[in-house]
Amino acid sequence: MKESRHTRQGFWAAALIFALFSLPVMAGAPVPDIPEAVKGDQCVEETGFMRKNHMELLLHQRDETMHRGIRTKKHSLKNCFTCHVVKDAGGQPVTVKSPKHFCRECHDYAAVQIDCFQCHTSVPGGHKTTGEKL
Amino acid sequence: MNPQERKQDDNQIDTYRRRLLGGGAALAGAATLGPGVFFTSVARAKPDDQPVSSEVRWGFLIDTNKCADNCNDCVTACEKENGWGSGSADEQHSRPDQKAQWIRKVTVRDKRTDHSMSLPMMCQHCAHPPCVDVCPTGASMKRADGIVLVDKHICIGCRYCMMACPYKARSFVHEDLEHQREYAPRGKGTVESCNLCVHRVDKDEIPACAEACEEKAILFGNLNDANSEIARRLASEPSTEIRGDLRLDLGVRYQGI
After folding, report:
1. What is the DSSP secondary-structure string of chain B?
2. pLDDT (tens digit, 9 = 90+) per residue, A65-90?
């Protein structure tokens, strides 16, 4: 009798542990909702390569442009936004202030701060007038 | 990337050919104006994937006799082009003397004769720039083609360059900005100044101030090209450097001062 009670307790403990571990899976672990690019089927490099190395490409391009005046479009920050633009309900591109911004989707998830947009504009074409509020 | 741009990237030969044809068209157009008369200098035709070269040295020749006292067109054009001053609504908290000033109109008066004149003052794009000498990080730099500018990626905002510049050409950004132009990034904690509209120059266009000046008081061109209008005028007409005693070999020269 004593043994069977132990067995029953063990069963419930195992069930509880299973339930606890499987809970996040059932609820759906949060994953970044990466917005689709607006045009083209293929990024400038292979998608997996871009996910891992986009920062290296941008860093290289930035120095080439600043110091040597090389202005190829392929790996430029400007080119990222030509395709990876997210628009709001009104059809306007969202700035980096919005959590829906292409860069922020993953960077928020990975808790990696991006400093690019302290100086660079985060929307395609930048701001052409004297400071419309977005 | 639009289809035309993609095509340009994919096919460099096409790009070169297009530029060559464009240059040819410019030459043909210039020929009809008569010998030695050009609306603009002939395209330099640097492809996007080639680095700038020290064979070129960009500069201004500013004729103060043509520069009107009450005209501010060059400053307004720069503000609009690069998104500072009246070209931006961002710097709300800075005092006027703290706000960015890439180019300013300066009025100078001879105390003895009371003769006054007005001239635009901006980065003089020195061949031996003191701002580059003092920069601890290499952010203040001179490109091979003589354009002096700040690499804001590595600028730490120490402002040594502002102290070193004899022309008070540099400004520090004191507050967060949001409405930058696509081609003119600027942000809090970095120093900035006239960059000779480097984004336009790299596209074979002339700086916004020179384009905006109706009196044609600001002439932009390649100082190293003996056939350019600026070089021919410098060779045939008197001009001076401001604070020439510092022997910084300026890219900006003035007439009538």
Report:
1. --HHHHHHHH-HHHHHHHHHHHHHHHHHHHHHH-TT--SSPPP----TTSPP-TT--EEEEEETTT--TT--HHHHHHHHHHT-GGG-S---SS-TTTS--SEEEEEEE-TTT--EEEEEEE----SS-HHHHH-SSS-EEE-TTS-EEE-TTT-----HHHHH-TT---EE--S-----BTTB---TT-EE---TTHHHHTTT---HHHHH-TT--EEEEETT-TTSHHHHHHHHS--B-TTGGG----SEEEE--
2. 999 999 999 999 999 988 999 999 99
